[in-house]
Amino acid sequence: MTEVKDMTVLITGASSGIGEACSRRFSKEGARVILAARRLDRLRSLAATLPSDCLPLELDVSNRDKVTKTIAGLPPEWRDIDVLINNAGLSRGLDRFHEASLDDWEEMIDTNIKGLLYLSRIIAPLMVKRGRGHIINIGSIAGHEVYPRGNVYCATKHAVDAITKGMRLDLVETPVKVSTVDPGLVQTEFSMVRFRGDVDRAKSVYQGYRPLGGDDIADAVFWIASRPDHVQVAEIVIFPSAQASAAVTHKQFE
Ligand code: NDP
Ligand code: 8X3
């Protein structure tokens, strides 16, 4: 097993959901965690509850210049990143292709694809230079299947799948490992963001069955990161027990 204690782990989207759960898990195991997201107040509150050394970092992954400057400006003791967890992401809307908003599409593409690329392109060569590192992307079942009205969100997650595979091919001659965790339905703020604060619509996504929680995904991410050096987990797809595919979830109502 690889000892995660004292590793430096950068987690994007640490202010909520899966990223927050990963932050708690890695910190509990003794890793030094860089908590990155746009909402700095949330990151600071989270850092105050974590047992290990943590660095809250205000970062909009979709802003190329800010990503470059923010990573270049990391304090020296936080620069040697051992694990990068590309988790920041979002969905906007659930609309038919011919009715969807171009702004929504651009926000998803800028965050889910370009954001992951900006950060990985800076950090991967540093890992190669140091001769160690692990990039773990959070994809989705939406990266394997396309569901009605999922159009561009699914396209962004298919891109994450392709980029993950491309990274692994191109880094194979180095000690840097690349993995992806691809969840089905996880109860987080994801649906609130997708439906722009429509609480009832967001809640209905998780009713009639037991969804996954952020901790279930953090378990998988931590397991992947703690495998021995010679073990590279390529991909894990995780569903709630009631889910069988992107479009099929067995819901039971009284
Ligand atoms: P949440 O909405 O709970 O969390 C999303 C996180 O991403 C927040 O911390 C948010 O922080 C951050 N984020 C969004 N945009 C940016 C940005 N431009 N720059 C930096 N951070 C950003 O959703 P989840 O935890 O569910 O989502 C995490 C990942 O998991 C996403 O990539 C999502 O696609 C994926 N996923 C989710 C599933 C689910 O069912 N929930 C299933 C499969 C995959 P802030 O707003 O503070 O910047
Ligand atoms: C999030 C899961 O099925 O809502 O990626 O697209 S789904």
SS strand fraction: 5-15%
Q: How would you write the strand order of the largest sheet?
A: 3-2-1-4-5-6-7
Instruction: Let me know the average pLDDT.
Output: 98
- What value does the Rg take, in angstroms? 18 Å
The poorly predicted ranges are: none
Structural class assignment = alpha/beta
CATH architecture grouping? 3-Layer(aba) Sandwich
Ligands present:
NADPH dihydro-nicotinamide-adenine-dinucleotide phosphate, 2-hydroxyethylsulfonic acid
> Could you describe the largest sheet, including whether it forms a barrel?
7 strands, parallel
Query: What is the CATH H-level superfamily?
Result: NAD(P)-binding Rossmann-like Domain
Q: State the assembly state of the protein chains.
A: single chain
Number of strands: 7
From the N-terminal CA to the C-terminal CA, the straight-line distance is 45 Å
Task: Count the domains.
Answer: 1
- Globular, elongated, flat, extended or rod-shaped: what is the shape? globular
Q: State the helicity in percent bands.
A: 40-55%
Brief synopsis:
This protein is of the alpha/beta class and about 250 residues long. Helices cover about 40% and strands about 15% of the residues.
What is the strand and helix layout of this fold?
Blueprint: E1 8-12, H1 17-28, E2 32-37, H2 40-49, E3 54-58, H3 64-72, E4 83-86, H4 102-130, E5 134-138, H5 151-170, E6 177-183, H6 190-194, H7 199-204, H8 214-225, E7 235-238
Parallel strand pairs: 1-2, 1-4, 2-3, 4-5, 5-6, 6-7
Helix pairs in contact: 1-8, 3-4, 4-5
Bound molecules: NADPH dihydro-nicotinamide-adenine-dinucleotide phosphate and 2-hydroxyethylsulfonic acid.
2-hydroxyethylsulfonic acid binds at residues 140-142, 150, 185, 246.
